[in-house]
Amino acid sequence: MTENDPSQALLAALSPPLDAQALQRLNELDPGGRHGLLPKVLRTFDSSSRRLLEQLVAARAAGDLDGQRMVAHTLKSSSMSVGALRLSQLCADAEQRLREQRTEGLPALLDDLESECRQLLNTLQPLLPDA
């Protein structure tokens, strides 16, 4: 780790809960961290995930299965891209059940998804430098 590369410190702090290989791939897109790509990507993930979590809560309260599926689909991709593998898998499972309209066990799965997302965001937030 070089003194001029704050992204290395961020990588170390985030692995776990995020997958180290996924973070490293992101970091390799900005060697030396000169453009601050990793923190920018993580801030974007943080803000979009918070918005999606609110949408999921609202869709669940309204019984909107299609809205829940869309949130699970979107969050699945973004969480995979930053290495939030467990969250991505929970989203994939929820998306599949919602697509097939299999609601047995769905509330518990969505509770787990929400919990995992909140836990990840709570861990991520203090580690992200201000924009």
Task: Figure out the total of helices.
Answer: 6
The total of beta strands comes to 0
Percentage of β-strand residues: under 5%
Question: Any guess at the CATH architecture?
Answer: Up-down Bundle
Tell me the span between the first and last alpha carbons: 22 Å
Q: What string gives the helices and strands in order? A: HHHHHH
Radius of gyration: 16 Å
What would you give as the CATH superfamily? HPT domain
Overall number of domains: 1
For this entry, what is the oligomeric state of its chains? Answer: single chain
- Overall outline: elongated
Helix content: over 70%
The first-level CATH class is given as Mainly Alpha
Averaged pLDDT, please?
A: 86
If you consult CATH, what is the topology? Answer: Four Helix Bundle (Hemerythrin (Met), subunit A)
Outline the biggest β-sheet: none
Structural class: mainly alpha
Low-confidence stretches: none
Protein name: Hpt domain-containing protein
GO molecular function, one term: protein kinase activity
InterPro entries: HPT_dom_sf, Sig_transdc_His_kin_Hpt_dom
Domain HPt: 34-127
List keywords for this structure.
single chain; 131 residues; mainly alpha; Four Helix Bundle (Hemerythrin (Met), subunit A); elongated
